[in-house]
Amino acid sequence: MSETGKNPLLPSVHTIREVRDETDVGDVKTFVVDGSFDYLPGQCAMVSVFGVGECMISITSSPDASARGRYLEFAVKKVGLVTEALHELEPGCKIGIRGPYGNHFPFEQWAGKKLLFIGGGIGLAPLRSLINHCIAHKEEYRYGPIEIVYGARSPGDLCFKDEIMGHWPKCEDTTVHLTVDRGDENWKGHVGFVPQFVEEIAPSPSDCVAITCGPPIMIKLVLETLRKLGFEDDQVITTLELKMQCGIGKCGRCNVGSKYVCKDGPVFSLAQLKQLPAEF
Amino acid sequence: MSATITVDLEELETQLAGDVSRRFDVYVPVDENGAVVFRRLTTPASGWLKRSVSLTRSVLPANKLLTPQTDPVLRFQGGPTDYEVSDAAASTDLVILGVKPCDARALKLLDKVFADESDIDQVYVERRQKTVLIGVACEKPEPTCFCKAMGVSPWSSDDCDLMIYPMQGLEGLALKCSSDKGQAFLAGMHLTIRELPAETSEEIEAHYRAIPQPLSEFVGHPEALSLDSFELPIWGRISERCLSCGLCTYLCPTCYCFAVVDKSLGERGLRARCWDSCMFPDFLKMAGGHNPRPTKKERVRQRFMHKLCYTHERYGQIFCVGCGRCVEKCPVGLHFVDVLSQLRRELAGGGGDGL
């Protein structure tokens, strides 16, 4: 069967090109791996350490950058068996990758709209792919102003510092609002939780799409805040995270109602989520 | 193609054990200490065919031969900087003889999952294409059988390539071809074939139609559940006795959930699909500890809602063929058919009375 390439669970083997520490405590690392494939922002891939296992990770590089540099980037937080094993790997090591899987953020449908991105912690990883893609195609899709609200537990936990503090604020019509739950002696920015911060910033819902990703509790409270600000359910986009094993809607793991998160998700509008049994 | 024929039983037996076994892996049901299991036909004792077609349903569904409990995906060797990975997915030319109509229907349902979607599982599809299904009509249903209630007829040839009718009193073994694949397979055996007159064919059908299946009458014809059933109180009540053993799902011909598991010894290793069960507490538990189905209530509900609602929404079918295995084997008597009748009462507005 190997000659015909029919095995849907067979990954290709990629070499790690670079490993970047994202946080002070070292619990999030970005892996840059050689080789790329076509994908869209929001899509994921099954990343595997041979002998340990696979896990679904969102692709954090933007499709444009991947295509140019022939690489893929995955920002991985150390939380379980596979991610722990990944964190042990160095440049030159080989990992398995198969994908891309799932749907993507419907950025084609946002022509002429203002974009509001709300991220928390490692939840910025899938948004980063989308933000960079939207910035690169801002004229093509005639997007309005872009606002990014991002928070983490502490200044040392903020990911992608080059972009949130360097690149993005310099982009045209793009504003970045940062916050941390607890500051430190060097932190001069906002202190407070993301949902409250969004409420303080009070973005207008008119002609705006809000895209949010972060820890489940943050998402829950952000959705509440957006509702208070007057956002309708179809103006709010988020992603679901569920245990996944196959990535192709067969293994039954990420089943919520009649949907499979790996195939029909991970991106859902709040209106779509409300049609599902609350079991995620 | 749909005419009923007879063949000589001994001639068929010789062909299957001889030439056919050289071209295919032939699996047949055998009685092993009172348990009916499918085994590869290697050096059978004479008279095996008659014994095989007279056996009751197997402990594990015949269709599990296409989705084995441990199913290799890949093999690897080497260290982190020089892994060599090879494809380990395999398929063989397969004949499964003695498939009950319930299990054959289950394969039709599994086709919807593995072959009918945009992400086709080519490993499954290739196995399916290379498999000849020889069904056998049910002569003696088990007390727990309720396939008729689920729309399966215990003598139908629809879901097989060839169908055997092991009814007594006929000269030879009655057979029916129900696919081009079955036709070609039959032709390849060069048997002496006698076509039966239409009235004998009708007699055969009448014989099978008359075999009672009391549990089906009790069950009636269950309808698909709507998403509203998610909130019914029944789930909390019936799940109390569940042991989370997963037996119901392992025995179920339409259950297909699997895990992908890595095993290694030194620098060599294997990745495989392994059966898994939504009844296990950790099935959905994520790294970091979050578990969207933390108690038995959510897990038992998932099993029933998946079969009776979600698959119907997605594939247009209830994923139960009434084989009765889960009814027979559940160690605490959490019976599918009891749940169906309780659901019916609860949906009609009556309260449940417990199991």
Could you explain how this protein is built, in words?
The complex is a heterodimer of chains A (about 280) and B (about 350). By secondary structure, chain A is an alpha/beta fold. Helices cover about 25% and strands about 30% of the residues of chain A. Chain A has a seven-stranded mixed β-sheet with strand order 10-9-8-7-11-12-15, sandwiched between helices. A six-stranded antiparallel β-sheet of chain A has the order 4-3-6-1-2-5. In chain A, strands 13-14 form a two-stranded antiparallel ribbon. Chain A starts with 11 loop residues before the first strand and ends in a 7-residue tail after the last helix. The model of chain A has no long low-confidence stretch (mean pLDDT about 95). Chain B has twelve helices and twelve strands. An eight-stranded mixed β-sheet of chain B has the order 3-2-6-7-8-9-1-10, sandwiched between helices. Chain B has a four-stranded antiparallel β-sheet with strand order 5-4-12-11, with no helix packed on it. The chains are: A alpha/beta (about 280), B alpha+beta (about 350). At the A-B interface, strand 4, helix 2 and strand 13 of A face strand 4, strand 5, helix 4, strand 11 and strand 12 of B.
